[in-house]
Write a structure and sequence with these properties.
The complex is a heterodimer. Chain A is built from eleven helices and no strands. Chain A is an all-alpha fold. The chains are: A mainly alpha, B alpha/beta.
Chain lengths: 292, 465
């Protein structure tokens, strides 16, 4: 197992996601082809190759996949594809592949080409992988909720403007999209909540002084608040459909901002050195950028 | 082949309904048609937009004579059907097609190219029902059965290769389609009919089938109760409209009210009670029952009759654009069919030539076996018989193939060859239009699929008219 194997798997995964994206977009925009079986299968194949790529790359670099920011970017997109493949039929959101595949491709590319690649240190606490893993699952589910919400807004626009031919016919029903969005949020929210709690516990153990650290924490809390607000208002005040979709998109945008802050941070915070062995903080480990 | 009938293009509904025949009298009608000496096979197609007899003429002195005789027989049967005193009473309502025109007509009818609603799918099922009824009555046996079966293939090809059947072209179907676009499966949705008139009933027929439950809200409670009972639903008086809207998902409004029955304020209150749950309102009343501003509310969608008709018109326009492609398929299939049918014309000659060759060789063999070869064992004799059979097949393979090729491309060339073969081999003369009844009693069910001519047809030498 060497770097070449990891690179080959990376190229194959990218090509599969790219093919799935092209297939879905061609179907959605031009109404050509049939994504019924092939589209989800391509995404499933992409997810399998992606998982293999993560395993090989992490072994080659001797880095735990939930360590650093580049691997998690990759892992989150892979988890999103897996969740899509599992839930698409039950929730009738096959066409959400039109968002899932390009999102996965973008995240995969970002994990490889954005930010610095640095050799990783060992994980210094058991809380960190727990914290990162939960957040990754949560963000993956929010990615799917975002896809359903975006499709909802497109379909809702068609139905409201009474342009119900063409693309509208190829999109899932409004209620199915609304329901899928809600369920993905419901599934992801507890994970995010535990992730936020573990992150907060961690943050108390380290000094977080850099702007990026503060921004990350702020965006993390805002993400939680937005998603919590969407779920609460839906249950209490009947915020469904368009409002819930906008809220979901906003929540996912903040979650992405957290990742962007990680990706674009320039230096390892001084607190890493100060924290010492056995008291490693979130920043110290997440800041290590390894090229998967 | 002859087709005679009336359709929405040639006769108004009061004339068409006089010709119509229900399934209960079809066997008798078909028996009457096929008992006529002029007709070999027959099928009776009766739908709300057309009634026609499709028949195969029996052999006659000439093709024209046979067709004319068949036409007279069909008109006579139709006269009896409507109880008219003379054939002339049928007036100008009837259309008549024969030969390739008749085959083209059958193909076009099955493919819904001649339907009132272009591309509608029901006609294929109706033609299949007519086919099955004719087969069951013994009125379809071979050539006509094959032709109708070919029409099914043409219809399926057009449906799969063109967009002729795409889109929805009736108001109630569009309403159902829209509701599905919003709710997906309607199995969990409650349908509320506001108004209990004829239009509400039509909508209930389409929506009621797939919905969870149906409710009827009407000014006259009795009328609401009657309609609700028809569809196994629940009735409510109009003053309970707000409560009904709260528990319904799809609303079809069709009252004769001159003012809005469902206002923006009402729906606003309802949506609060529904906790934002989606509400779809179909307003098929003129004047409208639902205030247009209701459509601006979140998670509320209002479609009126103009919106639905625009969708119908759009779909119809799209279908019209597919007609050229569909007609091209019909023409290609017709040419293919005609080539195959012409090939049947040389079959009697092929059969006669084979019979003569085989009889000469077998006679020579018998003679030799009785004299010089009488010492041969049974095994040797069987081997010699097999050799004669093989020699016949090999010898006649080329002439048979060339005759059929000539027949499929040109009647004139085939005719010359047939005459030459008959002259050179001293074959008995072949009648111009054979067509014996019952030569092939095998007939396919409408649901079976085949486009390959039956071998028995080719061997029988039946001629299509």
């Amino acid at each position: 197992m060497n770097e070449l194997s990891a690179n080959i798997l990376f190229v194959l995964t990218s090509a599969t996601y790219a093919a799935a994206s092209a297939l879905f977009l061609r179907f959605l925009v031009r109404g050509k082809g049939d994504v019924g079986k092939l589209g989800p299968r391509l995404i499933a194949l992409g997810a399998a190759l992606h998982a293999a790529h993560i395993c090989v790359a992490s072994l080659v670099l001797r880095v735990c996949p939930v360590e650093g920011i580049h691997f998690p970017m990759s892992v989150v997109s892979m988890l999103m594809c897996v969740a899509y493949v599992i839930a698409r039929k039950r929730l009738r959101v096959e066409v959400a592949g039109a968002f899932v595949a390009p999102l996965a491709l973008t995240a995969l590319m970002a994990s490889r080409f954005v930010g610095r690649a640095e050799p990783g240190e060992g994980i210094k606490s058991f809380i960190l992988p727990f914290h990162v893993t939960l957040n990754l699952f949560g963000v993956a589910l929010f990615g799917l909720a975002f896809s359903a919400a975006a499709l909802y807004l497109v379909q809702e626009r068609f139905v409201k403007s009474k342009r119900i031919d063409g693309m509208s016919r190829r999109l899932p029903p409004l209620d199915a999209l609304d329901r899928a969005e809600h369920r993905f949020l419901l599934a992801g929210f507890p994970l995010l909540t535990i992730g936020i709690i573990t992150g907060t516990v961690w943050a108390q153990r380290v000094e977080a002084g850099a702007t990026a650290d503060i921004l990350r924490a702020v965006f993390g809390y805002v993400t939680w608040l937005v998603i919590a607000g969407v779920l609460f208002l839906r249950a209490a005040a009947g915020w469904r459909g368009r409002r819930a979709a906008y809220g979901t998109i906003a929540g996912f945008a903040f979650a992405v901002l957290v990742l962007v802050v990680y990706l674009t941070r320039k230096e390892v915070p001084h607190s890493v050195a100060a924290s010492g062995a056995g008291a490693a903080d979130t920043e110290s480990v997440l800041s290590r950028t390894v090229k998967p | 082949m002859v087709v005679i009938g009336v359709s929405h293009k040639t006769a108004p509904v009061d004339v068409r309904e006089r010709f119509a025949a229900g399934s209960e009298i079809l066997p008798e009608l078909l028996a009457r048609l096929t008992s006529r000496p002029e007709l070999d096979e027959a099928m009776f197609l009766s739908t709300c937009n057309r009634v026609e007899v499709i028949a195969l003429a029996k052999s006659g002195k000439s093709l024209d004579d046979a067709t004319r005789a068949a036409s007279r027989a069909i008109r006579e049967a139709l006269r009896e059907q409507i109880g008219a005193s003379s054939i002339d009473d049928l007036g100008d309502w009837l259309y008549e097609k024969s030969g390739d025109e008749a085959v083209r007509h059958v193909f076009r009818v099955a493919a819904s190219l001649d339907s009132m609603v272009l591309g509608e799918p029901q006609i294929l099922g109706q033609v299949k029902d007519a086919y099955d009824a004719a087969v069951a009555a013994g009125a379809l046996r071979s050539h006509l059965a094959r032709c109708v079966h070919r029409a099914f293939t043409v219809a399926k090809r057009i449906r799969s290769e063109t967009q002729l059947g795409a889109g929805i072209v009736s108001i109630s179907s569009v309403a159902v389609d829209l509701a599905k676009r919003i709710f997906g499966d309607l199995a969990g949705s409650t349908v509320l009919l506001v108004g209990a008139g004829e239009m509400a009933e039509q909508a209930a027929k389409s929506l009621g089938k797939s919905s969870k439950s149906i409710r009827v809200c009407n000014r006259s409670f009795d009328r609401a109760a009657t309609l609700a009972a028809t569809f196994g639903g629940t009735a409510a008086p109009l003053d309970q409209l707000e409560a009904e809207l709260v528990i319904s998902d799809v609303v079809v409004a069709s009252t004769s009210s001159k003012t809005f029955v469902i206002t923006r304020d009402l729906v606003k209150r309802v949506m609060k009670q529904r906790k934002g749950k989606t509400l779809f309102l179909v307003d098929i009343a003129v004047p409208r029952n639902v205030e247009p501003d209701v459509h601006k509310l979140d998670n509320v969608y209002v479609y009126n009759v103009d919106d639905l008709e625009a969708e119908v018109a759009e779909n119809m326009k799209a279908r019209q654009g597919e007609v050229v492609s569909a007609e091209r398929i019909v023409e290609a299939e017709l040419a293919d069919w005609a080539a195959w049918a012409r090939g049947l014309n040389v079959n009697p000659t092929v059969v006669a030539l084979r019979a003569k060759t085989r009889s000469v060789l077998v006679a020579e063999l018998e003679r030799s076996l009785g004299t010089r070869l009488k010492h041969l064992t049974e095994g040797d004799r069987a081997a010699l018989a097999q050799m004669v059979e093989s020699a016949t097949n090999k010898l006649l393979h080329a002439p048979t193939t060339r005759l059929k090729q000539a027949a499929s491309t040109s009647d004139a060339d085939a005719g010359d060859l047939v005459h030459a073969v008959h002259h050179l081999f001293d074959l008995p003369p072949v009648p111009e239009a054979p067509g014996e009844r019952g030569r092939d009693s095998r007939t396919m069910k409408a649901t079976e699929s085949s486009s390959t001519p039956l071998a028995a047809d080719q061997e029988s030498g039946r001629l299509p008219h």
